[in-house]
């Protein structure tokens, strides 16, 4: 049985998908980009601010499922330019303890939705 997870504290989906789906104890979070859920605008001042907004969106969805970053077991990071890896990683690392950080891959892609620079999806387990 699956349960749809939705929160107004993260951006609404821009297509036929949900913010997250809880199946049993496992939460599958759709890729998040730097849309500010209050203004609906993209936060693209710089790659650090963009990544921070993505992480805030992910935190809001985790919270709606009564979880936190400690529950995350897998992250997928998609970036448009591998030269931004260190800056994205610096922001991302603030949200995890190194000893319990999730498994992860980081992949450079040609384009992302709305031509943003970073998109992150996660899987978490209660």
From TrEMBL:
Spans through the membrane: none
GO MF entry, a single one: deaminase activity
Residues of the signal peptide: none
Domain of life the protein comes from: Bacteria
CC per GO annotation: cytosol
InterPro entries: RidA, RutC-like_sf, YjgF/YER057c/UK114
Pfam families linked to this entry: Ribonuc_L-PSP (PF01042)
Family the UniProt entry places it in: Belongs to the RutC family.
This protein's name: 2-iminobutanoate/2-iminopropanoate deaminase
